[in-house]
């Protein structure tokens, strides 16, 4: 198993000098310590939460609360992250979130993330099998709990029945997310939003093929399985210690 190489904290302060202040990180850390139900939060994690919220302390606090509470309570996405089990390969949404975890820890802050969801291979017969509650949980976590600056959401290889899918997911999307949503039936329409050299070769880009990029990323993620398992154990909310009303998935969507 591989060991995750965490981004250097001092590098983060240098890269974002003038915006990222150690005093704000300290204030956020003191707030975390005053919340007995929350797990320990590292300095790098505090920086990620602050940066993703454009250094707004109160917004960072809300994201921290959502991030750790959701990871503890949402069994659909975080209930089984044992990478020794072959079954995890069938849950690509779970594995994709693990990839995001590792990217955040190893690369640190960045000024924008763009999500691309490829709909190639999706057929009308898949619609009844779509887990609507899992989709709801995933969209909520992306919008409220993931410490990234989301700049765009692109659906590639859009299927003819996209209107039915949008009817299912639109109620779970905030106005801001809907405004950054773009649908693509042809790959070249991605180029105005994403530099062509960053896109996979089968998208008309200059990078490696989507399959090769995906396989390399997933294999690396699986090789970090021990660390991910420990993280899940160590970063859990203890609801019995929460000063306010305990949170469950039944009342979670009133959290913010």
TrEMBL record:
Q: Name one Pfam family in it.
A: CRAL_TRIO
Recorded GO MF terms = phosphatidylinositol bisphosphate binding
Q: Which PROSITE patterns match?
A: CRAL_TRIO
Please give the GO cellular component terms listed in this UniProt entry.
membrane
Specify the domain of life of the species encoding this protein: Eukaryota
Domain CRAL-TRIO positions: 115-211
Q: What is this protein called?
A: CRAL-TRIO domain-containing protein
- Organism equals Anopheles quadriannulatus
- The organism's taxonomic lineage, starting at the top: Eukaryota, Metazoa, Ecdysozoa, Arthropoda, Hexapoda
């Amino acid at each position: 198993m591989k060991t995750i190489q965490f981004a250097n904290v001092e590098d983060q302060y240098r890269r974002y000098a003038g915006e990222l202040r150690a005093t704000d990180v300290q204030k956020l850390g003191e707030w975390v310590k005053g919340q007995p139900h929350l797990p320990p939060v590292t300095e790098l994690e505090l920086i990620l939460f602050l940066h993703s919220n454009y250094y707004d302390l109160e917004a960072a606090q809300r994201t921290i609360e959502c991030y750790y509470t959701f990871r503890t309570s949402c069994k659909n996405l975080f209930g089984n992250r044992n990478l020794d089990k072959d079954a995890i390969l069938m849950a690509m949404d779970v594995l994709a979130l693990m990839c995001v975890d590792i990217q955040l820890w190893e690369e640190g802050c960045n000024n924008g993330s763009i999500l691309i969801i490829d709909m190639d291979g999706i057929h009308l017969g898949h619609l009844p099998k779509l887990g609507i509650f899992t989709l709801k949980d995933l969209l909520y976590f992306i919008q409220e709990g993931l410490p990234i600056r989301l700049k765009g959401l692109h659906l590639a290889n859009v299927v003819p029945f996209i209107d039915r899918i949008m009817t299912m997911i639109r109620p779970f999307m905030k106005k801001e997310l809907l405004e950054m949503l773009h649908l693509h039936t042809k790959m070249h329409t991605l180029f105005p939003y994403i530099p062509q050299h960053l896109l996979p070769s089968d998208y008309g880009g200059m990078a490696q093929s989507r399959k090769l990029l995906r396989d390399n990323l997933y294999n690396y993620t699986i090789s970090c399985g021990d660390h991910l398992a420990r993280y899940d154990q160590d970063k859990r909310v203890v609801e019995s210690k929460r000063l306010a009303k305990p949170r469950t998935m039944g009342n979670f969507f009133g959290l913010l």
